[in-house]
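Re: Re: ligand-bound prediction request (bumping)

Still looking for help on this. To restate: I need the protein modeled with D-malate bound, output as structure tokens. Inputs repeated here so nobody has to scroll up.
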Amino acid sequence: MALVNEHYLKLAAGYLFPEIGRRVNDFVKSHPGKKVIRMGIGDVTQPLAPAVIKAFHEGVDEMARKETFKGYGPEQGYEFLREAIAEHAFRSRGASVSAEDIFVSDGSKCDTGNIQEIFGNENRIAICDPVYPVYADTTVMSGKTGKIGKNGYYEGIIYLPLTAGNHFVPEFPSQVPDLIFLCYPNNPTGAVASLEELKKWVDYALEHKSILFFDAAYEAFIRDETIPHSIYEIENAEKVAIEFRSFSKTAGFTGTRLAYTVIPSELMAYDKAGNAVQVKKLWNRRHTTKFNGVSYPVQKAAAAVYTDQGKKEVQATINYYMENATLIRERLSHCGYTVYGGENAPYIWVKTKDNMPSWEFFNLLLHKAHVVGTPGSGFGPSGEGYFRFSAFADRDNVLEAMERIENL
Ligand code: MLT
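Reply:
Sorry for the wait, this slipped through. Here it is.
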């Protein structure tokens, strides 16, 4: 008799975004001809930058010629890309990251989930609430939790509430976690963490021999010069932190697929006898066993993001999305909503009026304004009464959506 992995049976519901997609598709089917504006999932709408496309084509052409054809590449990513990342994403900001510590992959969603596999199930995991659902769901799948309670919290997870009161940056919990997920700029609240706030967490992890899983997928949207883009801008972070980065939002790669994870050589975890084990070594073992690398043309396209022309073009698209974010912030504030985020992140976190439950607001917007956003409670119990708008839509759609909400 085949037995299932029973940890999967503990999962509360379907994954958030397909669930939203299902509800929207039902609406579209029963209301043919209605134009629905999607500002739910953070999926980009603008095409790849011309410099990226040019390099992508060149990569494909190389694959078409016998002399330049490539089979399996290095599982960790081609040297040319890892070097470009180390230089332009880190060293240029004073964060010393070696190309040797970078693992190129096909997505941060996969990496933030898969990373759990190299850590024992005895670890106590802390995640923020609200949170990018992947961290919570993959913690459950990996067997590190008990059942979900009536309050929406899984037994065994240490929840770090993100509230307007703490500016959506968590305080230390009463129980000390071993593994701590942090995401800044934050998904879903759009908040950022200052250098001092991140330093506190690095120091905390050093003191307790904990490890920070730092998701910096939205760093490219930071406008405020004082906000760190990488955890490695904080002294000693290389001893306690893994960083996840993605080209999805930064360079429009949601459909092209490329991300990377940084695991510094200095980062150690421990076996039961207390011996230090290099985390990078275990991840390398996993990566080389389960992954054969990202396709060559995609890596070539990604490297073009760091050329002078690529940087200019990619920045122009980021600016476009951030202008959307400003528009959404301003128009919703004008309608009397309390809004957060959207200044250094592509997400705007909105308090519903009169504490309307998040899914009720979702239904109201869908049925009356034909606008889709993401219910805050889908990101965790502390998201109840909030709603997330993504700034990745076309400008015309953003303007139309705001007008429809104003007329509600
Ligand atoms: C989101 O909307 O939170 C993201 O698009 C999800 C993701 O990056 O997987």
